[in-house]
Amino acid sequence: MMSYIIRRILYAIPILIGVNILTFLLFFYVNTPDDIAKAQLGEKRVSQEAIEQWKQSKGYDKPILWNAEATGIQKLGDTIFFDKSIRMIFFDFGSSDSGRDINYDISQRMWPSLAIAIPTLLIGLTVNITIALMIVFFRGTAIDTWAVVFCVFLLSISSLFYIIGGQFFFSKMLHLVPISGYDTGASAIKFLILPIIIGVIGGIGGGVRWYRTLFIEEIEKDYVRTARAKGLKEITVLFRHILNNAMIPILTGVVVILPLLFMGSLLMESFFSIPGLGSYTIDGIQRQDFAIVRSMVYLGSVLYIIGLILTDISYTIVDPRVRLN
Amino acid sequence: MEVLTTVQKIMLLFVVLILSGTIFITHSPLTYASWNNPYNAEPEEDNILYVAFSSRPKHLDPVRSYSEDEYQYLGQIYEPPLQYHYLQRPYTLEPQTLTKMPEIVYLDKSGTPLVEPINHDQIAYTEYHFELQKGILYQPHPALAKDQQGNYYYHSLTKDESKPFKSLEHFPHTGTRELLAQDYVNQIKRIANPALHSPIRGLMQEYIVGLKELAQTLDERTKSSGKINDLRNFLVEGVKSTGDYQFSIRLNGKYPQFLYWLAMPFFAPIPWEADVFYNQPGFDKNNISLHWYPIGTGAYMLTENNPNLRMVLEKNPNFRTQRYPSTGEPGDKEKGLLRDAEKTIPFIDKVVFTLEKESIPYWNKFLQGYFDSSGISSDSFDNAISFGSAGEINLTNDMKSRGIQLNTVVGTSTFYLGFNMHDATIGGPSERARLLRQAISIAVDYDEYISIFTNGRGISGQGPIPPGIFGYKNGEAGINPYVYEWDNGKAKRKSIKYAKQLLEQAGYKNGIDNQTSKPLSLFYESIDIGPDGKARLNWLRKQFEKIDIQLIIRSTDYNRFQEKLLTGAAQLFNFGWNADYPDPENFLFLFYGPQGKIKYSGENAANYDNPEYNHLFDQMKSMSNSPARQKIIDQMVEILRHDAPWVFGFHPKTFSLQHSWYKNIKPFIMTNTGTIKYKRIDKKQRYEKRQQWNQPIVWPVVLILLCIIALVIPAIIAYRHRERSRLL
């Protein structure tokens, strides 16, 4: 397994370089270094001299990918791409174009994102699987039909509606929880209740339908019939046998998103004023802060690859027949 | 009697628990607390102002900062030599850290002071002399902390030593010292430092004697040996401290607007210790820099800097005794604005700025009493404002019942539709192009725009100068006679028929170019996006259709838009200007030839260049407000109205709401002056209102839970039934 993991990590290197180059090209296609400088210096009374000075101080006065005027290895080395990428490979993201240390900001902002994402995932998973198993139990009946219809209905509602509706009902009308905000430590709990509830409810439609499909596939298999023939209770059949055997696709969906959880949710964080990482990338794009954008894209790519590797590993744990070679 | 099954017993227990829980909650002391309070503590004693911010500050170094988002903090922390009087209108400068207003001396070429009567042509330099108040202290700060031997605690830390300090709170020692004239001199030198990217470096180099030379020296030294932090060994010829409390600034020529700059954070004092302290190794890794941790002498100091969540200002314990103003404009006394006259300020102990990006939660928190003031977004406009039969603006009954107050003020800003004066069709001094621009000025009905898109929050522009600025004229004398006529005591836009006549005179009868026999099409550069943007563009297209001109919208992003303005590729565009200071020069320079965008990368986006106008501008800019200045301004405005390089759009009006417990509120648009120190909170009233408005309502949640149980019970019964039938 170790050789497989090493091989996957080695495969990841060209992918990450490719993602990095693509980010550079796309970003600089839309924004020139002059645009970045103007975004940082403000709109009023900005002289070309000030723009040049800013570019020089931030290293944006060099060619982007290829320095035709340099010699030898410097053709590649004396470029914005090389300057900005080499430290990033080792997760030293440096400072943003506005001057804040990116590593510091990430370390501060990841916790609020995780504080919402982990409980939402765990509670959501439990609720969705339980409901899906119950629906499967009533498969072919009116309960099954109406449950699926209801799931489609929930699925069709925009997540923005859940957020605004939740804020309106629980916070504005009933005054039960704060509408928005965040705090550290135990004080954060009252701010997390509503986003988590909304996150769970908002995920029921899609989640339940997906798990129902997985369980329906399993329920007609021989081992289920055998379990029933042994006289096991239906609840035992559902939760012990069917659930265990449907774990591989569930894991595929869940493990791959685990590392990405800390990247946060843009909408949720924005509407609840939660200072997580979800809005960090968008803020960076809006402010044309290239340092933030490339760092977050790189981090997202790394985490996605980690997620895929973890998924592969988890297969071997759930299904002993799977071997990583 | 049938015995209950286990499941039924559990369900019954569950229902009983929910009901008893409801009774407990609704009758317990918990009910009297506000569950939805987003703040940690809410004792009656909290003398805290709660406000929101929607955009995080980028830089809090006063030499760099140039935006309202940042001035709302900097204005409270830093003290430039001058400030605006809180109550007087028009806005009047007054000393802030000075004993009196600066003494102004005019000098000839040899540096000899000129005596009255002064011939303005002889003025080669202007010298401003400042005298500081004694005993002004900086806020407690580790940069100023000294040990018993008088050595600074934290001025020579190594990278390892600086590691444990994650924020300023982690420094066990703080210190203070008196504000000195050298601190102002230091800040002026900082303007020239290329590493600090001050936006006014270019402008001030033209005026402050010796600043250009210092900038060149610092540029060279920075290139050769890296960033320079300590500027004590560098000199600016025209800026001198002549003692601990006196300093002077010498300017090239005469520049009366310089006084306004002296009220902006660019000229706030920075002690050299701050530069040395913040530029130590390792601090940047924890964002410990002057960008994030200011050091000022103002009424407040920043004690929590988390731009992703909240910014907290607390009363500066070293702040000197300062009094609430005892004079204002007529009517202030009746409004209760002089009730606190001569009382010691600041009144508020702490200010909590909370990040609130979305308008809906922001508005709801304001209504719940968790923000003390709020703007009015278009989403909530109808909830807050109603219009009377004569079009007068009122608060809705809901707002009135909450005791909310409305304040409106026309801002020192303007929005306009600009013509590129270098364009072959629409630009230039020809009569044909001028008449075309005049016709468009009549057709584009900004009164309608204000009504549709800004909920009436604005007044249509009769020229570039907004109300409240010297040079603005009200009533019939102030209308643009090329676009409006005075009718029944009101300005009435000229008819479309008249606009079409102008168009015909220009050679575009029925929108057909008589030179090419082709329909006239104009190109508009748009950066408007989203559904609102689409509506605005459709409206604009229709305005041009009224005079048979086809408007072609070219959507672009902001970067390309700016590039098009710089290269002259834009034909028609919308733009705005927010004044730095309340002087007509700050609006009229937007048409000054040497400010042209294409040639000089200046702020004259229309690239208007009229020698007569330029000459008048040169005269006007160095004059003090007087009838003679007004006369020149009138001439300049007349030239602009005649030539029409802009369609004078509108001056936006700001509506703001405050709760009844928030006192001493007077609309104040010069954001660079800190005004929180004058404001007061009636904390008892706020506490009571919050309690009244935020009683938790639990029964709907109980009802929902009971409904869920009601759904689950039949499911369980069905499950058991199925299980039983399967066994049979």
UniProtKB/TrEMBL annotation, chain A:
**TM ranges:** 9-30, 114-138, 145-169, 189-211, 248-268, 296-318
PROSITE patterns, sorted: ABC_TM1
User: What GO biological process term is on the record, naming one?
Assistant: transmembrane transport
Q: Which InterPro entries does the record match to this protein?
A: BPD_transp_1_N, MetI-like, MetI-like_sf
Which source organism does the UniProt entry give?
A: Candidatus Endobugula sertula (Bugula neritina bacterial symbiont)
Topology in the membrane?
Answer: Multi-pass membrane protein
Please give the family membership noted in the entry: Belongs to the binding-protein-dependent transport system permease family.
Q: Which domain of life is it from?
A: Bacteria
Q: Which residues form the ABC transmembrane type-1 domain?
A: 110-314
Indicate what this protein is called per its UniProt record: Peptide ABC transporter permease
One Pfam annotation, family name? BPD_transp_1_N
Compartments in which it is found: Cell membrane
- What keywords does the record list, in alphabetical order? Cell membrane, Membrane, Transmembrane, Transmembrane helix, Transport
Q: Which SUPFAM superfamilies match?
A: MetI-like
**What are its GO cellular component terms?**
plasma membrane
UniProtKB/TrEMBL annotation, chain B:
Q: Which GO terms describe its biological process?
A: peptide transport
Regions annotated as coiled coil: none
Looking up InterPro entries in the UniProt record yields:
SBP_5 (IPR039424), SBP_5_dom (IPR000914)
Where is the protein situated, by its record's location annotation?
Cell envelope
A GO cellular component annotation in the UniProt record: cell envelope
Which keywords are on file for this protein? Membrane, Signal, Transmembrane, Transmembrane helix, Transport
Q: Which GO terms describe its molecular function?
A: peptide transmembrane transporter activity
Q: Where is the Solute-binding protein family domain?
A: 178-597
Transmembrane portions of the chain: 697-719
Q: Which family does it belong to?
A: Belongs to the bacterial solute-binding protein 5 family.
Protein's recorded name? Peptide ABC transporter substrate-binding protein
